[in-house]
Amino acid sequence: MSVIPSTITSFPVYIKIRVNDQPTEAIVDTGSAISIIHLNFLKTIHHKNFIYKNHTCQTANSTSLNIIGQIKLEIKIKSITTYVVACVATNLITSILLGNDWINSNHVHLYGDQKKLTIPDQHDQLISIPYVEPTCINYPALLIRQITLPPYSQQLVDIICQINNAHNLIFEPYERHISKFIFIPHTLLNINKNQAKVLLINAQNRQQTLSKNTRIGTISRDATYTMHATTQIPTTHNSILNERHQPSTRHYNKLKSRAVLRKRDNSTQGKLNTICHHC
């Protein structure tokens, strides 16, 4: 499969669209061969005929993109209806990305200097679509330097991201570290000169090393925060919960109580009618 470029750039192109009649903001990426939708976003929209096809592909910045299948989607822009067969990913940094498969088949042209794109309607009249500022952007959080975590230990580590300075951003840990018994609490972060600190917990009985630029999570902006407690540590295989490690456990329990999950407020919406059982 073709290499997919990084979807985090200095000036990503966002437009307002409707995916299967669900409004969202999409990245339009002329460097990506394919279109991709995030699994979490797919679960919020009416869809069917999900095709399971599990594989991993590599982005231009060497980040692995976990593809679990593909699905045909209806993409509406103003009065124009288009279609695309999109790959479904579990770790995309946005809700949906429209790549060259959609761009070329619909004769879309991007004008960066004018901050707009054009797309022909059913009468071949060019419709101008303005770029928008995204309401929510996800940024990867990377380790600044290599770290070694001793057995049954916790450590504050320095991370770097593309945000210069900001307050109360949502940090969500990268799930792949759970399989290694490295646990990272959800939290709110203040970013200063592109840097912040995050707590890592090694629940293994051996030391573990993470290399420089390892992705440990995602930092995002969102308008609504839902506070709740989360428990990621399994009760079996986890010696950090033994009596001899109670100090670490008590500290971790304190951290759990301020966990954060990025979640939009759907309190005024009706129950979503999703009919696909594969995802």
Automatic annotation (TrEMBL):
Pfam families hit by this protein: gag-asp_proteas
Record-linked CDD domains: retropepsin_like (cd00303)
GO biological process: proteolysis
Single GO MF descriptor: aspartic-type endopeptidase activity
Highest taxon of the lineage: Eukaryota
PROSITE patterns reported in the protein's UniProt record: ASP_PROTEASE
Stated name of the protein: Retropepsins domain-containing protein
Organism field: Rotaria sordida
